[in-house]
Amino acid sequence: MPAAFAVTSLHKRFRTRLGRTESVALDGVDLEVPRGEAFGLIGPNGAGKTTFIKCLLGIAHPDRGAVELLGGRPEDPRSRARVGYLPERLTLPGAWTPRAFLASVARLKALRPERPGLDALLRRVGLADAGERRIRGFSKGMRQRLGLAAALVGTPDLLVLDEPTDGVDPLGRVEIRQLLAAELARGATLFINSHLLSETERICTRIGILSRGRLVRSGSLEVLTRVQQRWRVRFAPGPVAAEALVALGFEPAEGGAWEIAAPDAPALNRALDGARTTGALLVELDRASRDLEDVLTEALAAGAA
Description:
The chain has 305 residues and is an alpha/beta fold. It has 11 helices and 13 strands. β1 and β2 (22-34) form a beta hairpin.
């Protein structure tokens, strides 16, 4: 499958105001994301995430390295026109209405700003009744929704969203996740940069971890969060011989579940057969996993070592 974007040996440094010292924003990043994926970039503050996005979109120029965007170059207007971008620090014209703002975005993309299409975008982001209000009176969450609508103008092939749910209430986050799932279903590629790891886990299928300008880990979310050779099991409600299960190698886990280490399928089945002899009835079996916070903490610790 062709890449939505790819970077090779990406380097970027910034000089201080006096020009005497340099800070390293990106230090040899290599990354390729296939089209149709939901990719999440995570990492601590100052890791280089926003700089990476700016280099990807041609807003900033790398000192060294190559960037490919939708089969072209970031500077190519044809590639840029197929990208929808929601920046972290969104500035909107307070005297304008949402409908006028979206019309200007459409014209910048050489599209005809037809009212039915603009109103459909406002409905999608939950601003159907605010099309003629002045933006200056919008809350932060409403501004974020409008920025997302602007990113969706022209049904882009790639959506680059920097903190897309910042300032949005919990119900609004659910609505945005549903909207992004629909974009993914139509074939768009999602690139999400967010400090909200729980949101990233719910949306993304592929993750990259950036630390001190370096990509310290990347891959599918399933692989990164999997705990090798450990399984989580749940038994039917009722009297369970806990001591007998512990003797078989089972360990109590959160929520009344149990975990067991098993190097292969025969070992796992022997443990489950032993549990059945104690009267335990298996109702759920899954590979044990960690959350994204654990993966991030481990990757940052390994990168600092």
